Predict the structure.
Amino acid sequence: MNRQGSDIQGGCPVDKSQYGRRDRLVQEKRHDTYKENKKWAEPTSCTECHAVYIEGRWTWNDLPPEANEVICPACQRIAENYPAGYLELKGSFFKKHQEEMLNLIHNEEKLEKGEHPLERIMAITRENEHTLITTTGVHIARRIGEAISRAYQGDLSFTYGDGEKSIRVLWDRP
């Protein structure tokens, strides 16, 4: 070391910033099995729902006769019962307006699914105190929650998990 406190190797100062501290906590990357990390060969169609992968995205285009066949990520999630979104609806207001609100939910799903074939409702489970809706994507769960909040007010909250790979939406109105 010289007097200014920098190392000199071969007559040039060494940049210590490239040798930073090694004792910091390193966040492990989360792996999402259903997130597509590759591009599918085009055209590709889903054998379950008949969505078509073309021009880099899944669509509802007509099925080309020479298409490759796979099971799309949404159909995989449904088959393996592994939702990305959970929407819980509860409260006495929901019990009184359940059918009307479920119609709104199905309409929102129809709009979202039309634009994004991988965003779907997996199941609607009605229980005494609440109804749980599971979805294949985080966007549809949030979209439905926001639509219900706009139409019926109430308390709406979101909780993301796994680095925004899953969401839990809670709507309540007493």
